From TrEMBL:
Pfam families listed in its UniProt record: E_motif, PPR, PPR_2
The protein, known as: Pentatricopeptide repeat-containing protein
GO molecular-function term, one example from the UniProt record: RNA binding
GO biological process terms, semicolon-separated: RNA modification
Repeat region (PPR), residues: 124-158, 225-259, 326-360
PANTHER family: PENTATRICOPEPTIDE REPEAT-CONTAINING PROTEIN, TETRATRICOPEPTIDE-LIKE HELICAL DOMAIN SUPERFAMILY
Keywords: Repeat
Cited InterPro entries: E_motif (IPR046848), PPR_At4g14850-like_plant (IPR046960), PPR_rpt (IPR002885), TPR-like_helical_dom_sf (IPR011990)
Amino acid sequence: MSSNCLNILKSQLRVVSLCFFTKTKLSLLPFPHPKLRVSSFSSTITAKTANPNGNLSPKEQAFLSLFKNCSTMKHVNQIHAHLVHTGLDQNLYLVGKIIVFCAVLDHGSMDYAVSVFENIENPDGFLWNTMIRGFGRTSRVGEVFDYYKRMQEKGEVANNFTLSFLLKVNGQLGSAMLGKQLHCCTLKLGLETHVFVRNTIIHMYGLLRDIETACQLFEEIPKPDLVAWNTIIDCHVHCGKHKQALELFSRMLRSNIKPDEATLVVTLAACSALGALEFGRWIHSIIGQATLFDGVSVCNALIDMYAKCGAVEEAYSEFNGMSKRNIVSWNSMILGLAIHGHVNEALVLFSELLEDKLEIPNDITFLGVLCACSHGGMVDEGRRYFDSMRKEYRIQPTIKHYGCMVDILGRAGLVEEAYELIRGMPMECNAIVWRTLLACCRLHGNVELGEKVRRHLMNLEPDHSSDYVLLANTYASMGQWDDMARVRKSMREKGVQKPKPGNSLVGVCVSQVDRHSQGFGRD
């Protein structure tokens, strides 16, 4: 990668430098480890020093067998200590096993992977790729490109795995310029036709919302495979091109490509966004005919689709028919019931979730519960659930949870309490929440507070037409016609247009939960 590429990245990121472990620190690692002799796991080190296999020495074979039983960082520490003691800490194959465990697996430790890697004299391309992949799984994306630069300086040539990891990270990073440079790297290395690299490039452009480039690359594929179809459909959904996503799905079927669970989940998400109930039912019929896709992810996507399309009974039928549920299943159903005003049913389902004890409620669960309380005007219950979320479940409320609470309090006429709640928020309030409170001020005729709220909105979105209309209507509700006329005049002078019919501010709480952050494809 060029130095210019790295400079661009560093200008966009606050890269926190990593304090690497030194060889001196590693040499201080005690051996034998105090627990090495008494641990049932580590006691097998001595026992498994025979029966060599292939080109591995007896010692190497013994260590390899240990890795098959390795499941915790404690085990990794013990194996690594013994590798150092026996002089095998430069064996790339064995040390690579440690780095893979630490960098790639969920129960590993990236810091420990760094400590091991930095003490390898001549790491190979596989180890460099593993480190790049490991950092890509964390929030420390700066190290991804630092390690790539070091990899090049050491003379290691990037391969299809390297570029795929870098492209994936940049998709999350969102740098269009860096994405173009990485794309050029794939062309220079002749990797653009590699199936995995090509699909990752398309996916990256989708994440960057460059749907035209993504489509162009897709159309250049002579015979797209299932992964390519899934990628381009997902790109369209991510970019809000839901109608085109459904058209691509139909085109895929005409190409005799059989969908898998990933296809169905993302296509059902497009149906949810469009309210395309009949198309969603057609997909459901395909699932029923194939009798292959009864996984939790697809069922969750069906529940979400039916609920978003207003077919709550069908959503509930799908939920009841599930043999296995996860927290996404419960969240989808609770949210669906809450959004459509089935308050009691949503709260009863939440109680069943707590009684079930198989799943622990998360932030999305409480978002649905608070939405139900808002629809039902349940102030005391809303306060109780909000407190329970923080104190009992240790879940930090997001701006969406605070928005629901402001809506609950404001609808009940407790606008001053809602205002104080906003002032006490640990994060900066956004325009949506302020607008929620302004709507409640209009509803209850609180002109003084409405003016305060309007000033906050002026700093955030000075030309938002709904704010002018809300404040003008607040004045009108109190008979302050001169003030109403002043606001209307200000709108005309600034060229602010009135909201189009149908842009109702009712149901603000729905906007807090709509397209919530938890994907339905996650099990």
